[in-house]
Every structure is written in C-alpha cells, then in structure tokens.
Amino acid sequence: MLGEIGTYVILGSVVGILAGLLGVGGGLIIVPVLATLFILQGVDSQIIMHLALGTSLASILITSISSVISHHKKHAVAWNQVYKLSLGIIFGAWCGGIMASQLSSAFLKPIFGVFELLVAAYMLYGKKPGEHQCRPSLLNFNISGSLIGFISSIVGIGGGTMSVPWLLWHGNSIHKAIATSAAIGFPIALSGSISYLYTGWKHTSLPEYSIGFIYLPALLGIIVSSVVFAPIGATLAHQLDVQKLKKTFAYLLIVLAIYLLNS
Questions:
Q1: Pairing verdict, β 210-211 and 214-215
Q2: pLDDT value of position 56
C-alpha cells in the first residue's frame, strides 16, 4: 500500500505543476496512469475507466483551489467570466458524469485516447485563436459552459484544453486565459466528481477504500502533493514560454494515449 501511495504522490506532484503552469487540471495524465495502476491492482475491468475518471475529477477539485489562489494573487483571473460560465458548466459536467456511468469501460477507453490525441494535435499544430468577440452573450456563456463541462466530465479533465482556447477567442491574454481556466476547473470538478460519486455509490465491484467511483488512496496521494506543487506551476506560468512547454506536453500525451489504446 505504501508503494502504491508513493506512486500517487509522484503523480500528484506532476499534476500540480501542470495545473498551475498550463491551466489544465492534469486529468490528461491522471486518467491513463490511474487506469494502468488499477489494471495492475486487479480492479474489475468493467469499472476501471469510471474509477479513473471519477478519481481524476475529485483530485482536480482540490488542485484547482491551490492553483486559483496563486493566480488570484497575481490578479490574473477574470472572475466575471468564471461566474457566467459556471451555470452551464455545472449542468454539463453533471450530465457528462451520468452519461459516462451508462457506458462500458471498454467504450470509454478509446473515447479518452482519441480525445487525448486530438488535444496533442491541437497543441502541436493548432494556431492560437484570434480575438473574435470580447463580450459574448449570456447564451454563448451558457452553451459554451455546458459543452465544456459535459466533455470534461466524460474524459475526467479540468477543461483547460477547451476553456483556454475559448477564453483566448474571446479576447483574453494567454496568461489571463490560463488563470481563468484554472478557476473554471473547480465547478467542472465539483459537479463531475459528485456525479461519479452518485452513480458509483452502490456498485458491487468497487475496490476497498472507494466511495462511488472515487478511489480514496489515489485521491489522497495526488492531492497532498499537487497542492504543494500547484503554486510552483502558477509562478512558472508567468516566467516561462508556455507555448513551448505545451508542445513538450503534447508529445507526452501522444505516448500516454497510444499506451492506453493498446492496454
């Protein structure tokens, strides 16, 4: 058990830095790593992805708090946009978690793998979105928030891969978009993790120390170290060339996606 928790602590340190540095909750790394660990632990194959997704969102819930505090101190979070997106995000994330519970683990795995490859392709070849509309309508906020929340919940991420481009598209600087995206990750993780907790509450195949589709040893190991390292990532985000770092991150995503699709 100690070795297992140590692995989760290392995973959390990586996730914490990424959360602050790139405005992502780390789910793109957490989910495939947890899925692999759960396979090694002998977790029922029918719920491996559900457990990985639910635990990922629950960990992002804590990681985002630490990251947002650091960004807020630098006055980089556009809170008015966070508030306007949150209603749609909460609704979409809840629906995403409910839908995921109706899908098999074998079906969720390629969905996540393909999504991860698409994110990597965008990071490598996608162009920075040009400023389009600085004052989106309330309908735009609600629809966009719902879609970001829904997709994020199904693949167990904090939504940064979608919210950062959306925020850039609507007139935010790269640093403000990353900071605001970190704040958006909180309502996504809150609503999404509750939905996975609810749908998995009475599942008969859950491993010991699970509550719903959330595995507590992994959750605790990840959040303990991620809370420590998230402020470091947030500080680095204002000092380093984030675009170059994202390309390196993209190659890591490709490796993880290919491994997951072939596992």
A1: antiparallel
A2: 92
Helices 27-40 and 2-22 sit at what angle, rounded to 10 degrees? 170
The Cα 241–Cα 43 span in angstroms is: 40
Indicate left, alpha or beta for 156 from its phi (over 0: left) and psi (-120 to 50: alpha): left
The token pair that represents 102 in the structure block: 């109706």
Query: Given this model, what pLDDT does residue 23 score?
Result: 57
99 phi, psi to nearest 5 deg: -65, -45
Q: Residue 61: which of 197, 158, 203, 153 has the closest Cα?
A: 158
pTM score: 0.87
Which pLDDT tens digit goes with each residue over 241-253?
767 777 777 888 8
How far is residue 109 from each of residues 89, 114, 163, 216, 257, measured CA to CA in Å? 23, 9, 23, 22, 9
Q: Are 166 and 144 in contact (CB under 8 A)?
A: yes
Confidence of residue 48 (pLDDT cuts 50, 70, 90): very high
Q: 214 pLDDT exceeds 90? A: yes
